[in-house]
Each structure stands twice: as structure tokens, then as C-alpha cells.
Amino acid sequence: MNPPPPEPEPSGPSLREKPRRRLWQWWLVGLGGVVVVGVLLARRHEASSAAKAAGARDTGKPQPVVSAVARTRDVPVHLAGLGAVTPTSTVTVRTRVDGQLMRVAFREGQLVKEGQLLAEIDPRPFQVQLEQALGQLRRDEALLANARVDLRRYTTLFSQDSVSQQTLQTQRALVHQYEGNVKADQGTVASARLNLTYARVTSPVSGRVGLRLVDPGNIVHAADANGLVVVNTEQPIAVIFSVPEDRVPELLSRLATGQTLAVRAFDRTGTKLLANGTLLTVDNQIDPTTGTVRLKATFPNSDFALFPQQFVNAWLMIDTLRGATVVPTAAIQHGVNGAFVYRVQSNDTVQVVPVKTGPSDGDDTVASTGLQPGDLVVVEGADKLTNGAPVKLQSREPGPAVGGSGRDGGQEEPAGVAPDGGR
Asked: Mean pLDDT of all residues in the chain?
């Protein structure tokens, strides 16, 4: 018999690789099971939390809230704009004559009065020029006096027919010539005296001097570009700010009737009142690139709270709402149907009350409809409330009171007020 043929070797994976592949499959199945179990547990926890929250609402558990009372006060309506402080006058003091700067008579940053001495130029060259001009004047005055004596003598001789008319006319012309010389000499003397006066540099305006631009000992010229020092008038001082162009007709109508519109200047953050002033004028054109018009207000600045080129927030008061009902701004909530508040009822539940808001001032916002003075409104804890939910009133932690006097008291001002007064 012939021996049986040998069995062919398997062409697929070896016997060692099969257990390894089977092990990886089991690992993947186990990981998928862990993920599924985690998702189920998370959903069960969410459902349990929702059920507990619903149960808490159903059981009527009161929610702790902080409330405030709606009250009545006068609320100013204002326009707000960004502006910069501008000196009433800015003068670069320059010498009007050439010479050596001998002395500086001011301290940097000093307040000076108009006409106060600031610097001295070497006066000796101008004194010499004055002496020369005076000498020439006296010489020509003497010649004029002598020519007038000759003219009187020639006039007498001409009446006696002793001199010709031409001689008389020549002498009269000589007198006129000397009179012209004397006039020119008088102008030269006045010019020399004026230059001597210009050797003392005085302040043309009252204000505050800046940093010294030239040190004593330098030769200064009238054509120097930088000058000696800059003087800024800071009392009074101005603020230039911008408001939207659509408010221009209202402003012009009020100014045309002679009304004095108050302006308040606040710091960069809009929280601190710096100064009170009045509107001075409105620019004669609108900036087409920004759609705004520039306004200029003036401030006494008696305490120097405003400084040149300082950035400020300017508030222009255009009206006052008398006896308006106000609530803390924190009490105003916003929904799909507009603004509303949670009013606390006598049975310690809250009611959703739609309100129409008006201008804001400080921490307060005008509620023109929906509320009456004396109503309690929720200012903290409103995010967990629904209409008719029971509440438990709590006192506010120590700190600034909600619904304070705000800008009416002239104290520090809170930020976040609508730029146009909430209109």
C-alpha cells in the first residue's frame, strides 16, 4: 500500500494568534458595557434630581430672597458721552526778543497770574539801543529848534523884502525835514523801550505753568518753536464730549429758550463724581464718520479735580422726572415678554408683575407702570422663583444699600447706567 499523503499546513492565522484575538474582543465588549452602565446611572441621577426639585416645589418649600421697597423720588434724565478735559486757554510763552536767558522766575507746576514775571532776558543790549536812540532824538530836536528860529527870522526879513521867497521856502522845507527826523527818532526810542520791556517775559494769562522748556544761560530767539513754557488756564476749565446726532434738535430747542443745562463729569470708570458744570455751546456741525455732535461744557474747577486732557464721562441733564416710582436695578428681570419684577405678596408668595422701565439713575431704575410706592420687590434670589412661589425674606449682608440716593446725593456714582438715560 502507498503511504497516505501529508496533511497540508493551514494558511490562516496560527493557533497562538487565535486566543490573543479572542482576548481583545472580550476587552472591547467589557468596555462597551461599562459605558452603557455609566450613561444609565447618569440619566437615573438626573431624573432623581429633577424629581427631588419638583418635589421640593410641590411641597411649597420657601425660597430665601432679599427684597427692597419701591419708592418715589425725582430722577434726572441725562445724555452720556465720552469726553476730554480742555483748558480754557493754552498759551506757549515765547520770548519776543533775541538774547540770553538770564533767569527763570517760576517753579514748574506753579499757579501764576496774568502779568506775573516768568523769565528775564539779558537787558543790556536793549539799554544800549535805547541810549543811542535818545541821543539821536536830542540831536535832531536841537537841529529842529535851530531851523525854526531861522524860519522866524527869514519870515521877518521876507516881510521887509530883504530875502527872496525861495530862501524862505527852503528854510520852511528844512524845518519839515527836521520834524520828520524827530518823529523817526521818537519811534526808534519807543521801539528800544519796548524791546527793553520784552526782556521781562510775563504770563499772558492766569493758569498753571508746565515744565520748563529752556534752562537759564541759553540763547533764545523769537523764532524758537518750543518757547519757554506752556501755561494752561484751569479755572474755569472746559470738557468737550459727544452725543448722538438725533438728540441735537432737542438740545437746540432747550438752548433757544435760554435754559441752563447742567453737566456732570465722572471719572474713567463712571463711578466717581468729579465736578458739576453747565453746557456752554453745541458745535456747528455733525461728524459724519461717527454720527455725533460735539458739546462744550464749562466747570469752575475750584478744587482742580479736572486736569487738562483727562478722560471723563460727561452726563448732560436734559430733564427731570418728578415723583417717579423707582426700584433697584437688580430687581428688574427680563423675559420673552419684556421686563418684569417679582412682587412679594402679603402671604409671602411672589407675583410676576410686568413693568415698563424708564431712565436709570445710580442704583435705581424708573418703573413707570406696574408698581406702586411701597411695593416689595425681590432683588436677590429671583433666579429660582416662579409665579406664586413661596419665599422667605432675608436681610441683606452688610454693604452698600440697594436703591441708595445715587447721584442725587452727589456721592460716588455706580456704573452701568444706560448712556441715554434709559430712553
From this structure: 83
68 and 343 Cβ atoms separated by less than 8 Å = no
Report the C-alpha gap between 103 and 109 in whole angstroms: 17
Is residue 231 packed enough to be buried (19+ CB in 10 Å), middle (13-18) or exposed (0-12)? buried
For 382, phi then psi, to 5°, come to: -75, -15
Which grid coordinates are listed for 85?
478735559
- Peptide bond between residue 5 and the one before it cis (omega within 30 degrees of 0): no
Number of neighbours of residue 246 by Cβ within 10 angstroms: 11
Comparing CA positions, the residue from 140, 314, 177 lying closest to residue 240 is: 314
Alpha-carbon distance 261 to 280, whole Å?
9
Burial 283-293 (b: 16+ CB within 10 A, else e): eeeeeeeeebb
What is the DSSP track for 125-158? Answer: HHHHHHHHHHHHHHHHHHHHHHHHHHHHHHHHHH
Rg, Å, the chain Cα set: 45
- CA 287 – CA 244 distance, rounded (Å): 10
Please tell me the predicted confidence (pLDDT) of residue 177.
95
Q: What is the pLDDT of residues 319-354, one digit of tens each?
A: 888 888 899 988 888 888 889 999 998 888 888 999
Give 67-124 pLDDT, tens digit per residue.
Answer: 889 989 888 888 888 999 999 999 999 999 999 999 999 999 999 999 999 999 999 9
Residues 351-359, mean pLDDT to the nearest whole number:
88
Provide the 10 A C-beta neighbour count for residue 78: 28
Q: Indicate the pTM of the whole model.
A: 0.62
Length of the chain: 423
Rounded to an integer, the average pLDDT of 353-361 is 86
Domains of the chain: 63-74+323-409 (2.40.420.20), 80-88+232-319 (2.40.30.170), 96-122+201-229 (2.40.50.100), 123-198 (1.10.287)
**Backbone CA torsion sign across 258, 262, 265, 269:** negative
More confident residue, 284 or 414: 284
Q: What is the pLDDT of residue 19?
A: 56
CA 228 distance to own-chain centroid: 29
Backbone phi and psi for residue 221, each to the nearest 5 degrees, phi listed first = -130, 155
